[in-house]
Amino acid sequence: MALLNEDHSRFKTYTRRAALLAGGKTVLLSALAARMYDLQVLDRDKYATLAEDNRISLRLIPPPRGRILDRFGVPLAVNEQNYRVMLVAEKANDVEATLDKLARIIPIPDESRARILEEVRTKRPFVPVLVQENLSWEKVSRIEVNAPELGGIQMDVGQTRAYPYGADFAHVVGYVGPVSKADLESDDPLLRLPGFRVGKSGMEKRYDSQLRGSAGRSQVEVNAVGRTIRELSRTPGEAGDDLVLSLDTELQKRFQQRLSQERSASGVLMDTVTGDVLAMASVPSFEPSAFSLGMSDEAWRKLVNDPLNPLTNKAVGGLYNPGSTFKMMVAMAALEEGIQPAHEVYCPGHYDLGRARFHCWKGTGHGRLDMIGGMKHSCDVYFYDLAHRVGIAAIARTARRFGLDSITGVELAGEEAGTIPTKQWKRSQIGEPWQGGETLVAGIGQGFVLTTPLQLAVMTARLASGRAVTPRLTRRLLAPSGRVVRPLAEQDFAPLDLPGAHFDVVRQGMDAVVNELGGTAYGRRIRKDGMHMAGKTGTAQVRRITMKERRQGVISNEDLPWRQRDHALFVAYAPVQAPRYCCAVVVEHGGGGSTTAAPIAQDMMLAVQERDPANRPEPGRVTGTAEVASRSAGR
Question: Domain 249-284+295-334+345-426+454-478+498-626 maps to which CATH number in 3.60.110.10, 3.30.479.10, 3.40.50.1100, 3.40.710.10?
Fold first, then answer.
C-alpha cells in the first residue's frame, strides 16, 4: 500500500511538471507565432523595403560645373575630360608586380606607391583605387596598348576644371580645389563625393553654389558585401549655371601682359557709365589649373612664401598711398569750401608750417599757379596750401563721397577698405593727437592715406561722370538651356550732390596734365582724334633719400634698391569730351608715375576705345550664349 501511495504521488508530480512545460512551450510558440505574424503580415512592406535597400544602392553622379564666360561668351573656365588610371586589387594577381609594370609606362613616385598600397590594404578588393589622374592622351594610349599585361589596371574618365587663359584671369576667375572640413558643414551631399571640387577663390568661390549644379543619381544592384552587380537606372545631373562676366578677354590679356613687364603691379579698367569692370589685372599671377590638378607641397610653399605675393589680387587687396592722384580730392574739397579756381599760390620749392619745411617735388619751384595749373604741374606746394586751408575733415568728407575709405562691393573676397584719416581716426587707432603737418602730407596723398587700385578707378569714374558709380564683374547667369537666370541689371547711378562747375575745374586740370605742354603726362597723350584722355600722375614715396645717401651719390629712385623705390601711379578717363572709360594703374616701386604707370594706362585707354563698337565697323564676336556687345548694352 505504501508503494502505491508513493507511485501515485510521483505520478501527480510528473503530471504537474509536464503541464507546466507544455504551458511554457505553448506561450513561447504563441509569442513566436505572433512575432512571425507581425514581421510577415503587419510589417511586411517595411521589411520588404529594407531588403530592397540592401539590394539596391543609390549613388550620386557629380554634375558638370557651369562655365565662366567673358562678356562676349569667350570661355574662361570650362570642364575637360580627366583620364584616370585605377587599380582593382582582386583582378591583379600580384599588386606590387602590376605596379612595377605600370611604372615602366608612367612614373609612379614612391609616395604615390605607398598611398596606393595602403588603400589596397584598407579597402575591399573590388573597390577601385586611384593610381594617377590627369593623364595625357599619349599616356592613356600606352596604357591601353599594354592592357593585357596589366591585370587589375583599368582606365576611367572623369572631369577636371580647366582655365584656357591661365594666369591672365586667375585673380578674378579664381580656381577650384578639394572640399575642406569647413565646406562639409553644408548639407549638400555633393560635397561628400570623392574628388569633388568647390570654388576656392575669385568668382569660382563667389558663385560656387550656382556653378555647382544638381547631382544625378544611379541605382545599382549590389550583393551582400557591396559588390556592384549591374546598374538598374541612371538619371544624369543638371549642369550648373553659366556665369557671364563683364570682362573683355582681349583687354584683360593685354593689361596683364603690359603689367607683366614690371615685377609687381596692378590695374583696373572700367566703364564709367555702367560700372562694368572690363579688365582687372594683378602681377605676378599664378596658374589656377595647378590647384584643380593637384599641387605639390613644394609648389604651394613657393607660392605662399613668394615676397611678391602672387596669390593676392592687388587690384582689390593692395593698399598704397595714392600720391598725387589724390590731389583731385583736395581740389574738390577746396572748391566745396568756397576756394575759387583762380586762387593762386607761389611755389618756391617748399612750404613752411611753423618750424617745419615741406618740400615740393620740384626743388626749384613752380612759381605762381592757380588751381588748374597746380594740377597740371602736380605742384605739392599748391596742395599743401589747399590742405592747410580746408583741413583734414573737409578732405575726408570729399574723399568718402568718391568711394575712398570703404569697400566698393565688387564681387570678390579680400577687398580692402583703405584709410582716409581724420583727427578722430588717429586718436582711436594710434592714441595720439593729430598734427598740422599731417594734414599737409595727406593733401598730397601720403602719410596715413591708403587706397586700392579699384578705389582709384571708382574715384576716377565718379569724377568723369559726376555720378556715384560702383563697379561690377557679373553681367548675368545662364541656365544650361540658355534661359537667363539672373538678367543684366542696368545700374542707374545717382548724381553726386556737388556742383557741376566743380567737376569742370577738376576735369580741366586732368585734361591739362595730359594734353597741354608742360603737363606731367604730356608725353603720354593719345594723339588719335576723338580718343584723347585726361589723367593724373602720382608718385607715392616709400622713403626719403637721406642727406648721407645723397653725399654718397644716391640721387634718384633708380639708385636705390628696388623695394625702397617710390610707387608709380596713374589714373585716367577717356574720351575727354564724353567720358566713357577710366583706368587706374599702380606699379610697385616703379618710380615716377609719368614714366612707368602712364604708358600702361595710355596703351589701355587707346585699346578700349578702339574696341568700342562705335569706333569699329565689324560686330563684336559671339561665342556660346553671351550677347553681342553694344553701347546700349553697356560695353
Answer: 3.40.710.10
Domain ranges, ordered by start, for the chain: 59-245, 249-284+295-334+345-426+454-478+498-626
Q: Where are the alpha helices (DSSP H) in 190-313?
A: 202-206, 208-212, 249-259, 289-293, 297-305
Please, which residues bridge with residue 572 across strands? Answer: 535, 583
Identify the band that residue 628 occupies on the pLDDT scale cut at 50, 70 and 90: very low
Cβ–Cβ under 8 Å, residues 321 and 420: no
Crossing angle between the packed helical segments 95-103 and 110-122, to the nearest 10 degrees: 150
- What percent of the chain is helix, strand and coil (3-state, nearest 5)? 40, 20, 40
Q: How far is CA 73 from CA 78, 412, 482, 620, 629, in A?
A: 12, 21, 12, 11, 10
pLDDT, the chain, mean: 86
Positive or negative, the Cα torsion across 433, 439, 442, 447? negative
Q: Which residues are designated catalytic?
A: 324
Superfamily of domain 59-245: Penicillin-binding protein 2a (Domain 2) (3.90.1310.10)
Most confident of 27-31, 109-113, 127-131: 109-113
| This prediction's pTM | 0.82
User: Across-strand partners of 154?
Assistant: 86
Report angle CA 339, 345, 348 to the nearest 5 degrees.
160
